[in-house]
Amino acid sequence: MKRIIIGILCFLIGGGGAFFGVQYFMKTGLFKPGELLFADDISEKEKADLLEALAKTKLSKNVTVSQYYTDKLEDGFLADIFLPVANFYEPEESISSEEFNERFIANKDIVSVQNLNQTMKLLAVGGNYYLDSLESGAKFKYFKVEGENEEDVEKVSNAVLGLIPKLPTRDDLLSFTQTGVTALSRNMNTKMNEVGSGEYFAENIASYLKKFDLTHTSNESSFSDWASSANICSDWRFVDTLTSIGLDIVELTGNHNVDCGDDDAISTYEKYLELGIKPVGGGRGESEAEKPLEINEKGTKITMLAYNQSTGGATWDETPGANQYYEENAEERISEAKERGDFVIVDVQFNECNAYASTEEDTTCDGADSAPGGQVALFRSLIDMGADIVVGTSAHQTQTFERYGDGEIYYGLGNLFFDQIWWPGTTRSLGLTHYFWNGKLLQTRRFGTIYDSSYQTRVMNEDEIEWFVDRLNQAR
């Protein structure tokens, strides 16, 4: 009996050894290596890229790679970001989450953030604009790696990380907002004496403007002790209006900056420098006024040029004033900037259209050709010279905009802060927020502002800006 039992054990051991030996040498059964498996939603290119990355990697257990989408940014292997877009001229600003989901399923008017550019218009989703938050207003695609063995999962996860493209972050996305005419003067000086605070005029728009990396305005009035209801000079307390909106760049191409004399224009300029606000398009003398503003932030280089083409107030020699426009100077400066690889923005103080003086809605000044002097030809010529964006900063009533060549033209932004409350056309302005990523312009988002007899400027709501943009489109 004992011999029988020993024989059976030997048989079992020998047979088992042979059985498992065959599995070991044939790499089957218990000794079969792990495989990299893919869910149906993984593209053929993604499969090929991962297989290549793991070609020399051995897995002990199967590992599965799949993907999923969320409406909010979360932790994980973020693989791509998909955004809703529309035609550049589309007045619509936002779509609902339900409509976004329908578009996404149908793959209609949806682009990856890597393909987003200024020729299309990014839409907000349920009021959430992706480039402002980077956390919503998009579909976020994630890879998911699952398996029984932690070491295998880690190996595949590292390969997945190596394939994930560079995506926008707060550290490399630059937001630069341009606003219209500011002239904190005349009746606003009277109002200042009533309210006693410069922050009063900006309290409804300050939080919106100061959230951007760079905020610009074209201020046409200097600070002066002689400011009154009868002149375009600013009470010194209006400094707080500008600092409360987080002003970073002040354009001085206006024709009223020397209204209260050279000394006030100079002391105003020096106040900007003291506050760290960078002037452009004007200065204490001609050499200072014509100097371009060079910006190098978050991996983006911008050259900003600003000129007074025809409204007066230009500096001569070493007297304070605006930078006079000369075609040769513009050509040279734009060429130098493009050779450096800079993005070029050119602002122009042009002749004004004065047909807006009506208590009714008057669309005469909406057109790009409503001011005398060949505005369309001049602005387009700057794009032909190599400028990327051209902006008119003298219009007291907002003018239309267009894509021309490879650039964008905004013929007139209108009033951000001023006392012109008598005509509805002068109480509104078009604001522009340029979003740059790695030196490339992703978008210029249009927003609207409006004020009333309180002189407190606010941002237009969604219905107002859609109506406003549609009106400007009709004038193109």
Describe the structure in your own words.
- With 476 residues, the chain is α/β, with parallel strands linked by helices.
- The chain has 2 domains: 36-163, no CATH class; 173-474, Purple Acid Phosphatase, chain A, domain 2 (4-Layer Sandwich).
- It is built from 13 helices and 24 strands.
- It has helices at residues 2-26, 44-53, 97-106, 130-133, 150-163, 187-195, 206-209, 239-244, 262-275, 286-289, 327-339, 375-385, 462-474; strands at 36-38, 63-70, 77-87, 94-95, 110-112, 120-122, 124-125, 139-147, 173-182, 214-219, 249-251, 278-280, 282-283, 293-297, 300-308, 321-322, 343-349, 389-392, 401-404, 407-410, 415-417, 428-437, 440-450, 458-459.
Describe the structure in brief.
The protein is of the alpha/beta class and 476 residues long. The protein has helices at residues 2-26, 44-53, 97-106, 130-133, 150-163, 187-195, 206-209, 239-244, 262-275, 286-289, 327-339, 375-385, 462-474; strands spanning 36-38, 63-70, 77-87, 94-95, 110-112, 120-122, 124-125, 139-147, 173-182, 214-219, 249-251, 278-280, 282-283, 293-297, 300-308, 321-322, 343-349, 389-392, 401-404, 407-410, 415-417, 428-437, 440-450, 458-459.
